[in-house]
Task: inverse folding
């Protein structure tokens, strides 16, 4: 199997498991990724997905250029045209290049280790970004930073990625940290979280935000949360 799927309570860890080729994606891997993500989105018991790569040296180095993944409705890399309804986190070790960078940008946010490096290295071979990179990367890092990466093909280290906003945290164990955050997210009341996430991603205006938000006001989990607040329950937020 080229993909490992490991449920951990309400969190599922999906691992690209081709470390001998830096976790690059061929057609079977893309199909397995798609199957795993669709299964997560359809499973009401799962609330957060963590995407990572096996072996410690690479998150994903992109498409397998010796055995390229075929074009597909869900994206050549398997999942980049899927709109899931729940949070996703990338836990990044080592190489995160080309289509692998597009996979990381598909996730809601990114935790990386000190060795992580990033780049649109496919620029060197005339391979385009067709897994959402031209759309998601500018929204994450801003147009100037995105065009710098897209046009130059530069490789950047994790400190530059953090400064750009491509990475949200640096951790010696990004998978452990991602799962820790995922567990926290999974234990929050979900209706308002999902509505707020959708509003942030869709960016479709204040009126749409009002409609989504008001639909979660007064539901049982909000009433229970306010009762916990009234009785002095103050869970600490995760440390930044």
Result:
């Amino acid at each position: 199997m080229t993909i490992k799927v490991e449920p951990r309570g309400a969190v599922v860890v999906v691992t690209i498991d081709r470390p001998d080729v830096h976790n690059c994606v061929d057609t079977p891997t893309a199909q397995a990724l798609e199957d795993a993500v669709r299964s997560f989105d359809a499973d009401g018991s799962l609330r957060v997905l963590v995407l990572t790569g096996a072996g410690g040296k690479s998150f994903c180095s992109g498409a397998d250029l010796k055995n390229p993944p075929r074009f597909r409705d869900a994206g050549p890399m398997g999942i980049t045209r899927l709109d899931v309804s729940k949070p996703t986190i990338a836990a990044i070790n080592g190489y995160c290049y080309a289509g692998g960078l597009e996979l990381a940008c598909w996730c809601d946010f990114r935790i990386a280790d000190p060795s992580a490096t990033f780049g649109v290295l496919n620029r060197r071979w005339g391979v385009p970004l067709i897994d959402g990179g031209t759309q998601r990367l500018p929204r994450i890092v801003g147009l100037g930073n995105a065009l710098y990466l897209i046009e130059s093909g530069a490789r950047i280290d994790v400190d530059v990625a953090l400064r750009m906003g491509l990475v949200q945290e640096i951790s010696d164990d990004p998978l452990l940290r991602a799962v820790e955050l995922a567990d926290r997210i999974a234990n929050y009341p979900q209706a308002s979280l999902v509505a707020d996430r959708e509003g942030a991603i869709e960016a479709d205006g204040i009126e749409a935000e009002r409609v989504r938000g008001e639909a979660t006001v007064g539901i049982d989990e909000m009433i229970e949360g306010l009762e916990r607040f009234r009785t002095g329950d103050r869970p600490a937020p995760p440390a930044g």
